[in-house]
Design brief:
single chain, 388 residues, Aspartate Aminotransferase, domain 1, Aspartate Aminotransferase, domain 2, 2 domains, seven-stranded mixed β-sheet, three-stranded antiparallel β-sheet, globular, binds pyridoxal-5'-phosphate
């Protein structure tokens, strides 16, 4: 069969370039090469034992059917309680909907709020799937270039300048992927106010919320209720493969979101929701906090090591597990640099090309999702590659 029936929209859906690189890294590995992985945004820690047991127990108890589209009530309630415990804010569990990862949450919110032809503003560099999600619903991603001057985050001023009659929504992520930088709460409050005045909606991606180092995490729900939050069990909770996330929406939107969710997903995985419920217990939090400190140690090591050998990382990122480095001292083609580094030294990193149009050729994302010994070996190999 020919490919003639593939819809036009697929032309606009960009691939994840790093996936090709990852495939090559795996191929080299199966041929016996040692590869240091710093490319994927996935913690090397697996889900903690109590979480795995809770998932297994749910299956053993026969909980193998669909869950309610909005999620199991216990998990929605437990998430509300965790907002209360951590941020001292009251959220009605009815405003919390469980989704298949935060990817599911992003699709539901954009599907409910964005009309074809409307634009959705986002930072460039930024999380690559966002623009594809917007396009899936006929929206137009409006990428706003950000740089070191604003800590690679949107500001109220940038949003105001970029706003057009077609702008419908603004998406921000704090901490950000790929830069790991935070959006200060005061600036987010200003963005929120501006978006309200303009009659748009604000979507805040808090997937890396709890992975912050040396600063207090916050939630945008502390600023206002008329905004959308997405979050997930993937990163801080080390549950990428279970596919459980959540969203918090203004009350007026929950019925529509649930209706769309019933149609697109029917429900999120039932057993995974029971596992996620267990992840919110205080004994698991002890495990996650220990891991967070490990990430902090890795960040400190890699930041210093990469700067020492000539990568330019303008600000010490305070969150997530990424360093977004300017590599122009070594190359003006980060894409080839990454491929050559993999072939020559067996180090896999992500080229800037995956994160937008804002000088991607000058940038590389390093993920510190490996232990210190492996990171040190990675740095040793990078040094050999650049003949430091
Ligand atoms: C900023 C950001 N948002 C959303 C996601 C989606 O994650 P998940 O669907 O696993 O929750 C990711 C994954 O890397 C991300 O980096």
């Amino acid at each position: 069969m020919t490919r003639q029936h593939i819809a036009h929209r697929m032309k606009g859906i960009s691939p994840f370039h790093v996936m090709q690189l990852l495939a090559r890294a795996k191929e080299l590995e199966s041929a016996g090469r040692s590869i240091i992985h710093m490319e994927v945004g996935e913690p090397d820690f697996s889900s903690p034992e109590p979480v795995i047991t809770a998932g297994k127990n749910a299956l053993d108890a026969g909980l193998t059917g669909y869950a309610p589209a909005a999620g199991i009530p216990q998990l929605r309630k437990a998430i509300a309680e965790s907002y209360k415990r951590t941020y001292k804010i009251d959220i009605d569990p009815k405003r919390i909907l469980i989704t298949p990862g935060s990817s599911g949450a992003l699709q539901l919110i954009l599907g409910v709020c964005v009309n074809p032809g409307e634009t959705v503003m986002m930072a460039d560099p930024g999380y690559p799937c966002n623009q594809n999600f917007v396009k899936m619903f006929g929206g137009i991603p409006q990428q706003v270039q950000v740089d070191r001057k604003t800590n690679y985050q949107l500001t109220a001023e940038l949003v105001e300048k970029a706003w057009t009659a077609e702008t419908r929504a603004v998406m921000v992520a704090s901490p950000s992927n790929p830069t790991g930088t935070l959006l200060p709460k005061e600036e987010l409050a200003k963005i929120h106010q501006l978006v309200q005045e303009k009659g748009g909606i604000l979507l805040v991606d808090e997937i890396y919320q709890r992975l912050v180092y040396g600063v207090q995490s916050y939630t945008a729900l502390d600023i206002a209720n008329d905004l959308f939050i997405i979050n997930s069990f993937s990163k801080y909770f080390g549950m990428t493969g279970w596919r459980v996330g959540w969203l918090v929406a203004p009350e007026e939107y929950t019925e529509c979101i649930e209706r769309l969710s019933q149609n697109i997903f029917i429900s999120s995985s039932t057993s995974a929701q029971y596992a996620a419920l267990r992840a919110l217990d205080p004994d698991c939090e002890v495990i996650f906090e220990k891991r967070r400190l490990d990430f902090q140690e890795r960040r400190d090591f890699l930041y210093t090591a990469l700067k020492e050998i000539g990568f330019d990382i303008p600000v010490l990122p305070e969150g997530a597990f990424y360093l977004y480095a300017d590599c122009s001292k070594f190359t003006n083609d980060s894409y080839s640099f990454c491929w050559n580094l993999l072939e020559a030294e067996g180090v896999a990193v992500t080229p800037g090309k995956d994160f937008g149009e804002n000088n991607p050729q000058k940038h590389i994302r390093f993920a510190y999702t490996n232990n210190l010994a492996l990171l040190a070996e990675g740095v040793r190999r990078i040094k050999a590659f650049i003949k430091y």
